[in-house]
Structure formats: C-alpha cells, structure tokens
Design goal:
The chain is an alpha/beta fold. It contains 7 helices and 8 strands; from the N terminus they run H-H-E-H-E-H-E-E-H-E-H-H-E-E-E.
Length: about 240
C-alpha cells in the first residue's frame, strides 16, 4: 500500500493558531482582522461562483447540489457562509482546538459541516466543485506541494479560490510592523519572507495543471475599511480552474 503524502502543515503554525481558538468568533478578539476581512472575501467568492456557475446566480443557495472544501478553516468563519450557500461542505484545519470550536459553533447554528483536523494531503476524498483556502499558503512548509494537493481535490469543472498576502514592502508595514503591534493581529502570526507574490503563486498553480482566471487586490480604505481593488500590494485573491488545453 502506498504511503500517504507528507503533510505541509507547520506544527508551530498550527500551535500558534490553536491558541486563538477560544475567541475565534469574537469580532473584537485575536481574530478581529479576519472578521473585518470576511465580508469582502465572501463578496469576491460569491461573484466568482456566479460567474463560474451562472445558472445558479441570483439565489440564496448558489452552491446547492455542489461539494465544497475549505482548507485551513480556522473555527469556521468562511465555512459557515459556504454551508449557508447550500454546499455539502468539508472543512479542514491543522489545529484540533479550532476544529472543536468550529464544530460546536456550527451545531449551535444548525449547520451540518464535516469538520476534520486532517491535512489536505492525507484526505481521501476528492472531486470537490469548490476548493477555498484563505490566508493559508503563507503558513505551510512547502507551498508547491500544498497547491498540488489542493489541485488533486478539485473536480474537473471545479473552481478554486485562494487569498494570501503579497510580499512587498507595503505588506510588511501593514501586516507586521503595524498589524502585529497596534493592528490587533497576534504577534508571530506572519513571516513576511513566506509571502508569495501573484506571479509566484500563479506559477505554482500552472505547475499543478491549473490556470488563473482572475486576480484581484484586497486593500484598506480609511473611509470604508477593506475593499476589493486593482492594487495587490498588500493582499490579493485569485480564482483558478483546471487548465483547458
């Protein structure tokens, strides 16, 4: 029997995020920044879903009849809205503490989500219509292997959506110098040297047999908070699908 692929989870990263589990759902707690990011990410995801599957656009449950997986789900900030969109949802996280909180919160919301503390590389299931992984790739030990693992989970006509910080001087200032001092992001959350720029991430997706169909920046506007933007200097989101040769 062939051995399962090596996980790309960094145990130190898993432990760091596990300490945040208890107040993950507190909008003023250690995950406050994710609470602020989530509405913008959901707006992007919903637009991508409607563009990819236009027959389901306009309804409250555009993912009805579809299988989705959220990799690096934390305590479920993104997973729960995806489930409400109608997806049959699997959600993975490296920290057992996060999965425990996620399960309890989903149960309280009356949502059925298959939460697992399982590395994506070792998940037997595949053929997911939607694969999401938000702010995760910058925390793994081998980004190329991680992207390959995500690609193996994607159905032939599926949609993948990723988000991650860019590696620029501005992202270092915004996310580490300011974000981890007075911005509410716990110290030690980010290693700027592990950030990927859009060209690097696009190359990893290409090597995994995927093509990028959209890339959009995520910026901060003092008037409105986080917004989608053409400026990718701090953070960006992208969509990808299997390459159509």
């Amino acid at each position: 029997m062939a051995s399962k692929p090596t996980p790309t989870i960094d145990p130190r990263e898993a432990a760091h995020f596990g300490t945040m589990a208890a107040d993950w759902w507190d909008p003023n707690g250690s995950s406050a920044m994710l609470h602020k990011l989530n509405p913008v990410r959901l707006h992007y995801i919903r637009n991508a879903i409607d563009h990819h599957w236009p027959q389901g656009s306009g309804g409250f449950r555009p993912l009805s009849g579809k299988r989705a997986i959220d990799v690096g789900c934390g305590a479920g900030l993104l997973a729960e809205p995806l489930a409400r969109m109608g997806a049959t949802l699997t959600a993975l996280d490296a920290a057992e503490e996060n999965i425990a909180v996620a399960r309890a919160h989903a149960e309280g919301q009356g949502l059925t989500i298959d939460y697992r503390a399982t590395p994506v590389e070792q998940l037997d299931a595949s053929g997911f219509d939607l694969v999401t992984s938000m702010e995760v790739i910058e925390h793994v030990t081998d980004p190329a292997a991680f992207v390959r693992a995500l690609a193996t989970k994607l159905a032939p006509d599926g949609l993948m959506i990723l988000s991650t910080p860019n590696r620029t001087p501005l992202s270092r200032l915004a996310m580490i110098t300011i974000g981890e001092s007075i911005g509410g992001i716990p110290k030690g959350t980010h290693d700027w040297h592990k950030f990927l720029n859009p060209k690097e991430l696009t190359s990893l997706l290409d090597e995994a047999g995927l093509e990028v169909t959209d890339s959009t920046g995520l910026s901060f506007d003092p008037r409105y908070g986080f917004t989608l933007s053409a400026n990718k200097a701090i953070n960006y989101l992208l969509t990808a699908r299997h390459r159509r040769d």
